Amino acid sequence: MAKQPKIMIAGTGHFLPEQRMTNQDFEKIMDTSDEWITKMVGIKERRIIGDSGLSTSDMATAAGKAAIEDAGLTAEDIDAIIVATVTPDMNFPSTAIFVQKNLGAKNAAAFDVSAACTGWIYGMTLAEGMIASGKFKNILVIGAEFLTSLTDYTDRGTAVLFGDGSGAVVVKPSEDEKGMMGSYIKSNGDLAELLWSYGGGTHKNKKVTDQEKMVDESGIDKRSIIKMEGNKVYKYAVRAMIESAEKAMEDAEITEEDIDILIPHQANLRIIDAIAKRVNVSDDKVIRNLQYLGNTSSASIPIALDQARKEGKVKDGDTLLVAAFGGGFTWGGLVIKM
Ligand code: COA
């Protein structure tokens, strides 16, 4: 007998910028090929903010608005806004504050969560606790990323991986067996340097002279771009996402046979396939949008969830397993009955 969930998903939404960047576009600016990217990662194109002038909060607002409408609510019904992002509009106030302003969600408390690609799962876990406290009813949980603002277009090992976008859900108290049945979040700070962008903040672990050297001849500030040791990240990601899936199922008191749909974080098709194989979910039950969106970090799962619902791939009553992994390292999983 599965546990009674505390929160359920009342609505979903997403937003993608219009401009596309294809593998062929990358072939023109760096030594790479459509063949390599397709084989090693599985991405064909990504959506990018480009010259649209949009910010992270603009994308988050659009996804949030769609989720609120889908839930049949108004912005004034929302009493908390959580934005998971590692590409905030500015140091402070939070990106969520601008979402609150844009939506006119005047009854909400708004703040950001920073847990890289696992951010939306961290946000959902926080929302569960807030609703369980009895002090909050309708919470907007958004993942929104302007990752191309941190992309080093001289580094073929990272540039081809990332895209921009946002996804959102509205959660509310669960009324029956539907909702978030299990969750798990974890991190390992010892591995921060394997995937990070260390520009901007107040860290003092580099001497000024070292920092100055970080600005290269072409003027690119190496501190404000994504640095990654792809191979090590890959291996850890597979292990951590499997652990997330298993722990979330354990928390939900269900087994692999109960899973209708798997929505893994969209980082690499080979990672997705490895997770699906390990948790024994057949290919037709795995949601993938990486091919045409790239890795949108904290936005990837809520975007995939909204698309899958609207396409009829996720139906009422389905049990979803989601799992993510990201910089930190952070990782986590959820089991949600729709
Ligand atoms: N096009 C062509 N060649 C590329 C390339 C590209 N875009 N990127 C890297 N290469 C080359 C490397 O320069 C290297 O060449 P060399 O052997 O001549 O030195 C070769 O491919 C192998 O590089 P390596 O980095 O060891 O490859 P890999 O097997 O680790 O694959 C990734 C690279 C990025 C596909 C893989 O590491 C990965 O997906 N990691 C996880 C990244 C991720 O998902 N991060 C976000 C987590 S949320």
What structural class is derived from the secondary structure elements? alpha/beta
Note poorly predicted spans: none
Helical residue percent? Answer: 25-40%
Radius of gyration: 19 Å
CATH architecture of the largest domain: 3-Layer(aba) Sandwich
Our count of helices gives: 11
If you consult CATH, what is the topology of the largest domain? Peroxisomal Thiolase, Chain A, domain 1
Mass-distribution shape: globular
The number of distinct structural domains comes to 2
Q: SSE order, as H and E?
A: EEHHEHEHEHEHEEEHEHEHHHEE
What is the residue-averaged pLDDT?
A: 94
Give the spatial strand order of the biggest sheet.
1-7-6-4-5
Q: Can you summarize the main beta sheet?
A: 5 strands, mixed
Cα distance spanning the termini: 17 Å
- Approximate strand percentage: 15-25%
Instruction: Just give the CATH class of the largest domain.
Output: Alpha Beta
By CATH's scheme, which homologous superfamily of the largest domain applies?
Thiolase/Chalcone synthase
The count of DSSP E runs of length 2 or more, i.e. the number of strands, is: 13
Task: Provide structural commentary.
The strands form 4 sheets. The chain has a 5-stranded mixed beta sheet, sandwiched between helices. It is an alpha/beta fold. The protein contains 11 helices and 13 strands. The chain has helices spanning 23-29, 34-40, 56-70, 95-103, 119-132, 156-159, 208-213, 230-252, 269-278, 290-293, 300-310, and strands at residues 7-15, 20-22, 45-47, 80-84, 109-113, 139-146, 164-173, 179-187, 195-196, 227-228, 261-264, 319-326, 330-337. The two termini are 17 Å apart. 33% of the residues lie in helices and 22% in strands. Helix 3 (56-70) packs across helix 4 (95-103) and helix 8 (230-252) packs parallel to helix 9 (269-278). Helix 4 (95-103) links the parallel strand 4 and strand 5. The chain has 2 domains: 7-176, Peroxisomal Thiolase, Chain A, domain 1; 181-201 and 208-337, 3-Layer(aba) Sandwich (Peroxisomal Thiolase, Chain A, domain 1), CATH 3.40.47.
